[in-house]
Amino acid sequence: MHMQTGKTALANVLSAGQAGIRTGAVLGLFASLIWFAQAALIATLLAGLLAGDLPVSPLFLGGGYLGLAGLRALIASSAEKKLFNAAERVVTETRRRLWVQETRRADAVQGGPGAIAALAQEKLDALIPYLTRYAPAQMRVRVIPLLILTIAFWHSWAVGLVLLMAGPLIPVFMALVGWAAQQASERQMVEIGQLNDLLVDRLAALSDIRLLDATQPAIAGFENASHALRHRTMAVLRIAFLSSTVLELFSAIGVAMVAVWVGFALLGEVSWGTWGSPVTPWAGIYLLLLAPEFFQPLRDLAAAWHDRAGALAVAQELAQREQGAGQVILGTGAVQPRLVGSAEIAMTDLSVLRNGQNLRYPDITLPAGATVAVTGPSGAGKTTLLRLLAGLERPATGQISVAGQILTDDTADGWRAGLGWMPQQPHFLNQTLAQNIGFGQVPEADILKRAGLGSVLATLPQGLNTVLGETGAGLSGGEARRAMLARAMQAHPLVLLADEPTSDLDAETAETVMQGMLELAATGCTLIVATHDPALIARMAYRIDLPGAGGEL
Amino acid sequence: MKAVLHILGLMVRDQRTAMIRGAALSVLVLLMGAALLGLSGWFITAAAAAGMAGAGRVFDVFRPSAMVRFLALGRTAARYGERLLTHDATLRALTSLRVRLLRGFAAQPWEALQTLRAAQVLNRITADVDALDGISLRLTLPLMAGVITHLTVMVVIGWLVDWWLAVILTAIFLVGAALVLVLGIRAATDPSRQAEEQAQILRSATVDLIQARRDLVVYGQLPCHLDQLTQTQVRRNDHLRQLDRIERRAGVSLSLTAGIAVAFAMTFGGLLAQSGLITPAAAAISVFAALALFETLIPLRRALSDTGRIVQAARRVTAVLPGRIPDDPAGPVPMGPLRLTGVTFRRAATAQPILSDFSLTVAAGETVALTGPSGVGKSTLLQIAAGLIAPDAGQVMVGDCPLPGLSQRGLRGVLTYVPQRAALVQGSIAENLRLADPKATAKQMRQALIACQLWHVVEPRGGLDLLLGPGGSGLSGGEGRRLVLARALLRCPAILLLDEPTEGVDSATAIRVMQGMRTHLPQTAILLAAHRPEERAAADREIHLTRS
């Protein structure tokens, strides 16, 4: 069951590259077949030297060998190209799908952004070796050992028997090892993501950690986690190395037995093992040259089997994320024309599940241009209400209607086209301040002034072109909040949703932000603010007081 | 390359014995491989010759056949040991390197830490250090082992077969490999660097996009930001394809090198044998050895595609790798009130000082509130008092001890500063609190949480074991803020500096938090930057800062 879901998931991931992989695998097989001719040339040379009856000069044989080697290299190269392109297509498309899926999540991202970054980057890249190696190895395994076995039996049943005995043991062992490797590899993959998350997390808190004089223990904690990861990695590698060692052992014993038998047969020491006539020097040398190639595809497949284990783990994580993608936002998050009609908002029978509890909201209708304070103790669902109103979360029950239409996937983007949004934690993209405010539009000078950003810009090294840190490092709390206000104003919203817009701010700055919002309200914009700030509450015409967790209205 | 050598030096110093043993085993594996095929080829050909001559009875079959078996088994065992040893040593060396880097970042000045973008540092430490494993595993060890093997094989073939044949055969391999490596690295450096850069951009943009996704959705920016990511990916793919082409060409060249070597051994060995200068069995040795030596070329292809990435990573890591981090001893803990005298501070850009000639004493048990508009310098003053930035003039003293004379750790022992945006970490409530005091008991932690009005919130959700997500997510803004305060209380500081301590906390709770903290630390000198009435009400006196 466990394996089955992994396989299905992997098959889904692969579908985009199937055709290219097939072509590449067939070409790869052709390249491998050329060895049969190369080996024949070597056998002809050595047998001819032994008998002293070389049909042509060694120069021709050497030249022929070189020509075949060149041909083989070129065909192998074009096979690799086909395989790489197919793998690239698969990885590129999967990555894009993952981005879309994770950014449209309504609930918190599982494992944090570091885990997603690790999955989207190095874990998906880890699919490439599987894609380029597994299918070709499989193709070779189907053809080459059988072909060599036929040639071996043709010349000597003893050699054929040796190969026949040693060969099938390999896949049996491989399956056992592959299974163990997959489990170990899954554990390791999980841990890589966790270590990355731990590292991002600790680095983000590094300055606090230092203020608490906790640098030593925090580094020690990280060191322990790194060592734990190393142990896991080594556990995976040990299985991988052990299995390839055993395969190598089978192949080495097989080749050694062939060599010894052929040697003894050529000496005339053994008379059994052939179909009557003794084995010729040519056949003996040819068989010795082919024997390693009998095992090689099996070993390649075993190596690729480990890539497969890694790929299965990645595919499974992808599938889990897809299945666990619980709630998604309403709509697509694209630019759409605004909904027609006045920005009236009505909530009926609205509730959400939060920490296993049912949070109910009152039935309320807000006329366009209303100014509303959403209040209540921490955890009462203020932020959630703002997200519901922006179509960023879906209610458990009830509905919201906006501008006379029910807020659905079809209407959400149009509704949001008229929204301004000020989150509680300002988050800045790793781009310039101008980009963060205007998203491609040049921020209007008037808006910057009204948001109280003018004096801030003067102190920034490159003004609007300053690149900010992700929580707005370089800006104070008040400055970051004003930038969020400017961004909201730049959208010329019909409704402004603001989460604690005056927290972190002193009275004077809070006043600037409040004035900016009220100016927007004066133009007819609806204001909905979640806040504790009595000064802000007093400026709002309505108040929605949420009773807190478990409370009934 | 200098950076690569520097890191290689660090790695070898860290894991000297394991690396040397690993290198010796790598050589052994390659040599045994060449010996196995060479011997097998010789054995069969010589056996055939003896059989034809009717001399089968006198031919010594047992020593060669035993040797074939020994080499087959020994090579397999050596391979296993070599892989385990080199991988483990490399991973160990990399862990040391990672910790060293983190320690280097942690020792950076306060301001530098503030602007550190977690996503970028993540890139640096994880991706760059991960790439460095190639220095030992894919560059140094295979190259070294390959060259030693070729030279050894040359001597053996020269001795057993023919010196000219041996020297030319070795020359074909070494020249071919060197050409592919030098030309390939030159061609691959640029695309490899660019692909890597774009991978880093993709990674940090992914983190950015996930974190800001709600904002982007509201402003209708999600699809165009996804498109930007996709375009970066397309550019990266172009470079990856270019790299793949270079790598494939290198593959063809390496195959051809091996092909030329075998063809040469066939031709030259064949001609020598035809003219009777060597036996056909000796010719077989050189042909089979040449076949086996292809194994030494296989890692080059991988080395080639990784070199660009490795060199870049090594350069970046070396640039931030700290030389020697000075020890920061715990030092004596000073006693007494917090005293600021004549403190003046300018932001570099503006000539006008933010603070000029500012003096203040906060006695034990006293609470002083700094008020005034945003940007007036309240936070700056707290950072000066905390010893995080140095004033342009004047000084800060704890008792009679001026701050510059104190070690960082000594200062943290007496003084705790809670900045405006204090961060929490992923883990349980207890793990967060234990950052402040690793030896804190459950009772102490509970009391700190009670003082900060948080115990009744977390108790029904698992108490001290309640798990928080990255950055302390899982608590609301106000709850997180109170956890930060409880954490500060566990330091039991003589001086507590708070920057807007109750932001995001509702009014009634804020008043209780301020009272709770005072009751919890009755003897502490508290200096806070305040603008909420609830915070100001808790102060014994207020100092209003105005723009100078």
From TrEMBL, chain A:
TM region(s), chain numbering: 25-50, 56-75, 139-157, 163-181, 239-266
> What top-level branch of life does the organism fall under?
Bacteria
Q: Which InterPro entries does the record cross-reference, listed alphabetically?
A: AAA+_ATPase, ABC1_TM_dom, ABC1_TM_sf, ABC_transporter-like_ATP-bd, ABC_transporter-like_CS, ABC_transptr_CydD, P-loop_NTPase, Type_1_exporter
Q: Which SUPFAM superfamilies match?
A: ABC transporter transmembrane region, P-loop containing nucleoside triphosphate hydrolases
Query: Where does the record place it?
Result: Cell membrane
Keywords (A to Z) from UniProt? ATP-binding, Membrane, Nucleotide-binding, Transmembrane, Transmembrane helix
- What's a GO cellular component annotated to this UniProt protein? plasma membrane
One Pfam family matching this protein? ABC_tran
Sequence ranges assigned to domain ABC transporter in this UniProt record = 340-553
Domain ABC transmembrane type-1 span(s) in chain numbering: 24-310
Under the GO molecular function aspect, what terms does this record hold? ABC-type transporter activity; ATP binding; ATP hydrolysis activity
Keyword Nucleus in record: no
Q: Is Thylakoid among this UniProt entry's keywords?
A: no
BP-aspect Gene Ontology terms: cysteine transport
Q: How does it sit in the membrane?
A: Multi-pass membrane protein
Which PANTHER family has this protein been placed in?
ATP-BINDING CASSETTE SUB-FAMILY B, ATP-BINDING CASSETTE SUB-FAMILY B MEMBER 6
Query: What is the protein name stated in its UniProt record?
Result: ATP-binding cassette, subfamily C, CydD
Q: What is the lineage of its organism?
A: Bacteria, Pseudomonadati, Pseudomonadota, Alphaproteobacteria, Rhodobacterales
UniProtKB/TrEMBL annotation, chain B:
| Pfam families cross-referenced by the UniProt entry | ABC_membrane, ABC_tran
UniProt KW Membrane keyword? yes
Q: How does it sit in the membrane?
A: Multi-pass membrane protein
What subcellular compartments does it reside in?
Cell membrane
Say if the entry is tagged with keyword Electron transport: no
Q: Which InterPro entries match?
A: AAA+_ATPase, ABC1_TM_dom, ABC1_TM_sf, ABC_transporter-like_ATP-bd, P-loop_NTPase, Type_1_exporter
Q: Which UniProt keywords apply?
A: ATP-binding, Membrane, Nucleotide-binding, Transmembrane, Transmembrane helix
Q: What protein name applies here?
A: ATP-binding cassette, subfamily C, CydC
Q: Which organism is it from?
A: Thalassovita litoralis
